[in-house]
């Protein structure tokens, strides 16, 4: 009975989020009275609704095929879209958006209403994107740089991401495996738990400091490992500081400027390097992963593996 109620609740949640997303997309676009969105409202509404319907159908296909991890991820995205559209609708209905024509106007409005709520909301958003919302950190940091500037964004992001990391660790340590699996997906969680099994403290310490591993998922993994609260907090204080400062400075153009020829050239090179790294990881990811985890295996284990490979080759 409990499982049936759970499935009914999930279905109602999905149906409600889908309906709200599609309906509010049309309403919010139709509400604009000038500008680009107003001029191309029918086209934009048609394209966006079509994309949303395809997304909803794809989520249903994954659900029917038993791909719970993908379905839950897509459901989270749909809920986020519905939430954003609800906020947009409220802002339009209250006339708030009519007062905002630029980033400067938004900054002035924030200053006029006090400097407490906007940073607090941003900190909460950064915290949620670690363990709940499927938002890229670069996107939220970029929005923060526009609103608050580079150094304030560093501070607010650092606080929010640290809090989110602690929540992720606490979910694994206090609530347990099932809650962590629901939030990040059973397949992903099991995969990383298997990879760090036996040497979780050393491996996780290195992985948190390197930018190529999924820090957010690893917070849950760390909570389910033998890593202590003290070790986790120390590692996060260091690792998150490095990533937040690097991202904020990069997005803010303080490392490489956006308005000079050499800065644009550098960003093109950086973009090409990222694409090349992505392709390399896609094609050689398994080999790179085996090499990395092999660094932490004992000499005896490596000799055993080598002997096993030799025995297979002889056969």
- Approximate shape: globular
Largest sheet data: none
- Rg: 23 Å
Number of beta strands: 0
Low-confidence stretches: none
For the record, give the distance between the C-alpha atoms at the N and C termini, rounded to a whole number. Answer: 54 Å
Strand fraction equals under 5%
Mean pLDDT level: 77
Helix content range of the residues, please? over 70%
| Order of helical and strand elements | HHHHHHHHHHHHHHH
Structural class: mainly alpha
Total number of helices? 15
Describe the structure.
This protein has helices spanning 2-31, 35-39, 41-64, 68-93, 103-112, 117-131, 137-148, 150-175, 177-184, 186-196, 200-209, 215-223, 229-251, 261-294, 299-314. The protein is 82% helix and 0% strand.
Please name the defining characteristics of this protein.
single chain; about 325 residues; globular; mainly alpha
Topology of this structure?
Layout: H1 2-31, H2 35-39, H3 41-64, H4 68-93, H5 103-112, H6 117-131, H7 137-148, H8 150-175, H9 177-184, H10 186-196, H11 200-209, H12 215-223, H13 229-251, H14 261-294, H15 299-314
Helix pairs in contact: 1-3, 1-4, 3-4, 6-7, 6-8, 7-8, 7-13, 8-9, 8-12, 8-13, 9-10, 10-12
């Amino acid at each position: 009975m409990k499982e049936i109620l759970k499935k009914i609740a999930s279905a109602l949640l999905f149906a409600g989020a889908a309906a709200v997303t599609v309906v509010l997309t049309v309403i919010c676009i139709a509400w604009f009275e000038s500008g680009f969105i107003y001029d191309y409202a029918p086209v934009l509404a048609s394209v966006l609704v079509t994309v949303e319907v395809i997304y909803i159908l794809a989520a249903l296909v994954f659900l029917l095929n038993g791909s719970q991890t993908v379905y839950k991820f897509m459901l989270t995205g749909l809920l986020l879209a519905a939430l954003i559209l609800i906020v947009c609708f409220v802002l339009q209905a209250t006339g708030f958006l009519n007062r905002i024509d630029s980033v400067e106007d938004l900054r002035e409005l924030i200053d006029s209403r006090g400097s407490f709520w906007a940073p607090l909301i941003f900190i909460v958003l950064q915290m949620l994107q670690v363990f709940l919302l499927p938002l890229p950190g670069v996107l939220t940091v970029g929005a923060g740089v526009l609103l608050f500037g580079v150094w304030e964004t560093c501070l607010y992001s650092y606080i929010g991401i640290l809090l989110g990391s602690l929540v992720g660790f606490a979910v694994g340590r206090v609530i347990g495996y099932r809650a962590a699996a629901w939030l990040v997906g059973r397949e992903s969680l099991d995969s990383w738990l298997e990879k760090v099994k036996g040497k979780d403290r050393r491996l996780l310490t290195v992985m948190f400091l390197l930018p190529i591993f999924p820090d957010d998922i690893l917070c849950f993994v760390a909570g389910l490992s033998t890593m202590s609260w003290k070790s986790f907090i120390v590692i996060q204080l260091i690792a998150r500081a490095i990533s937040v400062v690097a991202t904020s400075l990069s997005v803010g153009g303080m490392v490489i400027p956006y308005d000079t020829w050499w800065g644009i050239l550098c960003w093109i090179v950086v973009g090409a390097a990222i694409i090349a790294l992505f392709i390399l990881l896609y094609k050689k990811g398994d080999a790179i992963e085996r090499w990395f985890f092999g660094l932490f295996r004992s000499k005896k284990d490596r000799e055993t593996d080598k002997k096993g490979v030799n025995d297979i080759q002889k056969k």
